[in-house]
């Protein structure tokens, strides 16, 4: 495990506690209610989950079985029930007479505000679903969505759900190669994209990246590319394959009967980085997933009809699936959707938008908070205190650990010391929150995600699966299945089983892939970071192997090793150690080559994967058996003194060279 005891000590020494002052509109008004729910989930596991399944969703055919574990770890939830996710997100609110409620307030990069009601959104989703059907897309077909953060992106996802097609959203910042890999692995029949997206005042082409992906070949399953025209930029269209979306929508009816699917039907596959190989397609269900997306909106965010909810995550990530596309809509809430970036036109954009739209629940990533702290320190005008943030009542963070200083700033400067901060720990694989405070109940400690939600049997174990004592670090596991958990890895059930239910732990616990420790007094969980070769850069997951493969694909690179190093803003930064096929360049030439490699990685994976540091060496530190000594590289990346045993190192001289060669 990568964590060190000093780290554990410093976080466990955090003793500040913030007792909730929020008035409870929530179903969990205090700790006693929370504890009663936890006890119910243990005493009557099936009854507890069945109750939540019934309370949160409308079923076309009610389920009679709750959990089926006969083929563990391929668990089935609500298996004989029939439902439709888009019906639950749209129709049921309209049928209940709430069609005039604003579903989405969308703000573009340049500040244009568009509102849609639930009735309008339903009509648009139906038209989109009818377009898909007219192109022959059927239940269970896979559709790739490569769209900006927009109403159109959400409509595309909901339309797939309506006809029972499984969507796979690819983040708009990913490269042609990333799209290509996903199209092939998913066997997609259709791609929905836009000509371009506008972020930070710049127009970035999307369709041309799709063209490049399809030109890589082997994508024979793709019959059409649907193009949403968002800018004046336009794009090239391949006759017969590419279709302009808007004229097709205009021809379609605003009614579309939802396709009733069984609860286990795959709603979506979302690719995420693992420690080895190519990204894996995390497959989620319809019933269990949507139940938890809905329930966690109520528990973690206390969502009500009066709220304006804003989750800043992109629909290309799991947070944008659960807390933009599905959770808020399933709850019939009003939410804000933003296409731009937090620093354009300046770093007060978030605060201005909260003020403008009277946002009451704001959910963002620690990286964004840290970069806005920096900006506010440098320029008074973009400081949150300059704006009226009195509408806020609950704050949230997600994606990476939040350091106590950033937590305190968020609490004081944004939340006016009045709003509880929900530090929500979860993963693409968990579908929704698993360890998080509850706004009216849980006393908060800066930097801790506090306690598991009712029904989530989170624990910390050692490498053999035995529980460790509080105060001791170990592996974070979840001991019992829960409805919104990953069902399998698309096309690769073996990888699912080996990766998440490893034999070493007896094959019975879900292994999260994070190290954690519980506080001895409060029993609060503290996440210590990934235990595998997955980096977390600005809250985005990236496999070191993926970046290494991208680097070695460059004609000048012989070998590469990638590690993370702590970074003030992005949490973790990428540091690449590179061995060239030719002599190491010096001075300007070294900088030029390093920049070329950064551009290369950007092109291969996407801009988020660009290494911050690049160090050229004649070789990499290896053991006599040829293994790269990553622990050593981590110390070098941090400019730390090397305390590890280097006696097994075959080529010790290499260390000095790698230390001094940063570009
Ligand atoms: C939702 C999401 C999952 C990984 C996870 C962990 C880190 C997420 C966190 C957190 C500390 C939190 N992580 N939330 N670490 N505190 N509140 O981010 O999913 O992209 O799959 O990343 O992110 O390391 O394992 P995903």
Automatic annotation (TrEMBL):
PROSITE patterns: AMP_BINDING. GO terms for biological process: acetyl-CoA biosynthetic process from acetate. Residues 546-627 form the AMP-binding enzyme C-terminal domain. It holds the Pfam family AMP-binding. GO terms for cellular component: cytosol. Residues 34-89 form the Acetyl-coenzyme A synthetase N-terminal domain. Keywords: Acetylation, ATP-binding, Ligase, Nucleotide-binding. PANTHER family: ACETYL-COENZYME A SYNTHETASE, ACETYL-COENZYME A SYNTHETASE 1. NCBIfam families: Ac_CoA_lig_AcsA (TIGR02188), PRK00174.1 (NF001208). Belongs to the ATP-dependent AMP-binding enzyme family. This is Acetate--CoA ligase.
């Amino acid at each position: 495990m990568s964590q060190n005891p000093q780290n554990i000590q410093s976080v466990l020494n955090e003793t500040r506690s913030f007792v909730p002052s929020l008035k409870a509109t929530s179903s969990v008004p205090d700790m006693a209610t929370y504890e009663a729910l936890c006890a119910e989930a243990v005493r009557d596991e099936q009854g507890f989950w069945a109750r939540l399944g019934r309370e949160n969703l409308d079923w076309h055919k009610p389920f009679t079985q709750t959990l089926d574990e006969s083929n563990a770890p391929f668990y089935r939830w609500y298996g004989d029930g029939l439902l439709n996710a888009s019906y639950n997100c749209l129709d049921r609110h309209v049928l209940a007479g709430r069609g005039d409620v604003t579903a989405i307030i969308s703000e573009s990069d340049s500040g244009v505000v568009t509102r849609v009601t639930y009735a309008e959104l339903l009509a648009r989703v139906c038209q989109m679903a009818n377009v898909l059907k007219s192109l022959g897309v059927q239940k269970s077909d896979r559709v790739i969505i490569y769209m900006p953060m927009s109403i159109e992106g959400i409509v595309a996802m909901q339309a797939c759900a309506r006809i029972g097609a499984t969507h796979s959203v690819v983040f708009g910042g990913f490269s042609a190669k990333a799209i290509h890999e996903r199209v092939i692995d998913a066997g997609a029949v259709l791609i929905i994209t836009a000509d371009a997206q506008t972020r930070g005042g710049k127009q970035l082409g999307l369709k041309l990246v799709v063209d490049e992906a399809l030109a890589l070949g082997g994508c024979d399953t793709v019959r059409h590319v649907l193009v949403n025209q968002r800018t004046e930029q336009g794009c090239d269209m391949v006759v017969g394959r590419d279709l302009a979306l808007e004229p097709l929508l205009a021809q379609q009816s605003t009614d579309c009967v939802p396709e009733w699917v069984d609860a286990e039907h795959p709603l979506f596959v979302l690719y995420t980085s693992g420690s080895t190989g190519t990204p894996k397609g995390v497959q989620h269900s319809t019933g269990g997933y949507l139940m938890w997306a809905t329930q966690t909106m109520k528990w973690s965010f206390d969502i009500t009809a009066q709220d304006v909810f804003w989750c800043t995550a992109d629909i290309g990530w799991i947070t944008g699936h659960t807390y933009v596309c599905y959770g808020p809509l399933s709850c019939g809430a009003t939410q804000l959707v933003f296409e731009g970036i937090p620093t354009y036109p300046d770093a007060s954009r978030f605060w201005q938008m909260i003020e403008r739209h009277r946002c009451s629940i704001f959910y963002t990533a620690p990286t964004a908070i840290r970069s806005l702290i920096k900006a506010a320190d440098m320029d008074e005008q973009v400081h949150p205190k300059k704006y009226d943030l009195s509408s806020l009542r609950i704050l949230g963070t997600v994606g990476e650990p939040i350091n106590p200083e950033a937590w305190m700033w968020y609490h004081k400067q944004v939340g006016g010391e009045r709003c509880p901060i929900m530090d929500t720990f979860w993963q693409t694989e968990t579908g929704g929150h698993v360890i998080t405070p509850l706004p009216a109940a849980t006393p908060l400690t800066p930097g801790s995600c506090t306690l598991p939600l009712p029904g989530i049997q989170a624990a910390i174990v050692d490498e053999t699966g035995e529980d460790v004592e509080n105060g001791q670090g170990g592996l974070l596991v979840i001991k019992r299945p829960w409805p919104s958990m990953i069902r399998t890895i698309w096309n690769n059930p073996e990888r699912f089983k080996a990766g998440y239910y490893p034999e070493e732990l007896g094959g019975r616990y879900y292994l999260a892939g994070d190290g954690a420790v519980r506080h001895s007094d409060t029993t609060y969980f503290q996440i210590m970071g990934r235990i595998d070769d997955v980096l977390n850069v600005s809250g985005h997951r990236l496999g070191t192997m993926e970046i290494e493969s991208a680097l070695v694909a460059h004609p000048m690179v012989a070998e590469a090793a990638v590690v993370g190093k702590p970074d003030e803003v992005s949490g973790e930064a990428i540091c690449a150690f590179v061995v060239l096929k030719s002599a190491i360049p010096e001075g300007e030439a070294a900088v030029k080559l390093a920049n070329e490699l950064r551009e290369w990685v950007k092109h291969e994976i996407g801009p988020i994967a660009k290494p911050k540091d690049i160090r050229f060496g004649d070789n990499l530190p290896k053991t006599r058996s040829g293994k790269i000594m990553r622990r050593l590289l981590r110390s070098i990346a941090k400019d730390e003194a090397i305390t590890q045993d280097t006696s097994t190192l075959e080529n010790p001289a290499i260390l000095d060279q790698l230390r001094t060669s940063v570009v």
